[in-house]
Amino acid sequence: MALLEARGVVSGYGDAEILHGVDIEVGAEEIVTIIGPNGAGKSTLMKAIYGLIDCWEGQVTFDGLDITDLRADEVTEQGLCYVPQRENVFPTLTVRENLEMGAYIDADVSEADFQEAFERFPVLRERQNQKAGTMSGGQQQMLALSSALMLDPELILVDEPSAGLAPDLVDDMFDRLVRIRDETDTAILMVEQNARQALSVSDKGYVLDMGENKFAGSGQDLLDSDEVGELYLGG
Ligand SMILES: Nc1ncnc2c1ncn2[C@@H]1O[C@H](COP(=O)(O)OP(=O)(O)OP(=O)(O)O)[C@@H](O)[C@H]1O
């Protein structure tokens, strides 16, 4: 059984059904990327998995446990964290205070955990006493990711880790995600607009379009597919 399994997920907002029965699997220590056009439902799928919105139909299991109806805070306690694309840090708290908030439900957090975060993203060490809201979008993204990692999760859902980064820093972010996976054994499920770069570091990829699965395969399979290339990777 995969670490995360979502089967036939139907969800949406109010009366609007956005996901029409989506399947996705993430294995332990895998990097998996979801791509697809704007409005395909990628972020909605992450919110449904994490319990921020209800699954109307279908099932989500994590580590063999049915988490379909758990609240987000309960899902976090199971070892699954979520880094949204926007408003993902406490802007009036310092970098260090944000990391402390990330670790708030973990009584075992130690100075070593902070040092690990600073080694991963040295800019956070330099700016540890700076208010998070005064940092660039890309730096806030690094902080949000680091805050999620303070809990040593088994899986993190990351909505557009490269958003807000200068183009020359995008590859560096993907390299760091690979390092995070390799060093901490954390699996990563991400949504990405920089689809080619994300798929090139991914064990698996999914194409979501109009709230439905269109393609699935290894990252390389999707990169090699003429159809995926033409329809979803800009030719
Ligand atoms: N809070 C909300 N309330 C109502 N509709 C929403 C809400 N959030 C998203 N939607 C709608 O759900 C659909 C899917 O949005 P979603 O953000 O999941 O797409 P996406 O694939 O992540 O797109 P993008 O790449 O643009 O972020 C869109 O039509 C969007 O307008």
TrEMBL record:
Annotated source species: Haloarcula mannanilytica
Lineage of the species this protein comes from: Archaea, Methanobacteriati, Methanobacteriota, Stenosarchaea group, Halobacteria
Superkingdom of source: Archaea
GO biological process: L-amino acid transport
Protein name: ABC transporter ATP-binding protein
Gene3D superfamilies named in the record: P-loop containing nucleotide triphosphate hydrolases
Keyword Transport (UniProt): yes
Domain ABC transporter: 4-235
Family annotation (PROSITE patterns): ABC_TRANSPORTER_1 (PS00211), ABC_TRANSPORTER_2 (PS50893)
Molecular-function annotations in GO: ATP binding; ATP hydrolysis activity; branched-chain amino acid transmembrane transporter activity
Stated family: Belongs to the ABC transporter superfamily.
Protein keywords: Amino-acid transport, ATP-binding, Nucleotide-binding, Transport
